[in-house]
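CO-FOLDING WORKSHEET

Operator: S.A.
Ligand of interest: pyridoxal-5'-phosphate
Run index: 400
Mode: holo prediction, single chain
Checklist:
[x] sequence pasted
[x] SMILES validated
[ ] output reviewed
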Amino acid sequence: MSHILPINSLQETSQPVPLIDLVEQYGTIRDEIQEAVQRVFESQAFVLGDEVAQFEQQVAEYCDSKYAIGCASGSDALLLALMALDLKEGDEVITTPYSFFATASAITRAGGTPVFIDIDPDSYNLDVNQIESAITRRTRAIMPVHLFGQCADMEPIWRLATQYGLAIVEDAAQAIGASYRGRKAGVLGTAGCFSFFPTKNLGGAGDGGLVTTDDKDIAARLKRLRVHGDVGGYTHVDIGINSRLDALQAAVLSVKLRHLDSWSDGRRENANRYNELFEEYGLAERVGTPEESTGKHHVYNQFTIRVEDGNRDEILKRLRARQVGCSIYYPKPLHLQECFSYLNYKSGDFPQAERAAAGTIALPIFAELGAERQRIVVQNLQQVVAELDQESSTSVRKAA
Ligand SMILES: *Cc1c(COP(=O)(O)O)cnc(C)c1O
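OUTPUT RECEIVED:
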């Protein structure tokens, strides 16, 4: 139960560690960004246009996809991808209940019905063994989420999609640059959806999103759907939406894309260092750390640990009080959200998703974090865990 504290106890005045610091990263690319922004202002061309076309080309090359279609957000990328599949009312899309809300709401916004299955407890991604039994006559697509920056298990998904004639829509919002057996997230299905929300690994100066695909017809549809289905001259062949990528975002993202791989490497180094530090501070047995499975290149949009003694919220509170940035992704699984009550799921339906929602904490992992601040995070975590152990053993003794 009790852990031996190392001699080097934390100094009173350790610096605060933010969960993410975008200011620091901006400092390293300020000139490049300023130049790009200036260029857009001089052109006064703010929506789509050359900047967006060039950025789309760059992402297509980066992911090795034939087409890339920018849009206004990751949420819209998911919606547009499902609209491009021509989802009909009552069509079912199999996905995970342990994700950001937009994963499931995109399905309902496109007129379909989300069908949840539980997650694999090690990767937090879809438990691929549960997909087949969830397939019905109405199933149109499988929507894996590459959660926290690691790809879902695609091989079984490919097999089932082929066998049952289903589309695959990847929610790759957290996984740009991640890969599965040497292929990048975004080219592992029918369509890949990305978000450029500022805290994603490739973050813009506001909202932005993009869909990748190798399918010519889907690409053409996506290009129409993001401009109200207009094929030119106010002739509308689809009922689309207004969801375009701004030139400013594209210009900023083009600059940042050049640095993406080095930032991802930084996140991976930080992840390795956390594992070493957890060993050093006697936390390795106590805390579950993310696993990178064979054939997968993890880009750690989040570094999520498990702290399961029913005291996750207390650990979070005390870490925050010690000025260690941390957060919960996600505290309430999607099948238990009020707005999805009409789907008739209940507590207990997806034990692994519920367990993850109740027992995980995301720690700082941004590329510029560095060894010194990581040590502060781990020292604080160790002390909080030791405090709680002590309190619980005292209360056990009192009760006895
Ligand atoms: C961020 C995110 C989205 C939505 O992206 P936005 O750009 O914020 O609309 C969708 N799915 C997942 C898993 C995400 O993390």
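REVIEW:
The chain has two domains: 7-21+260-399, 24-117+124-257.
The chain has a mean pLDDT of 95.
[x] output reviewed
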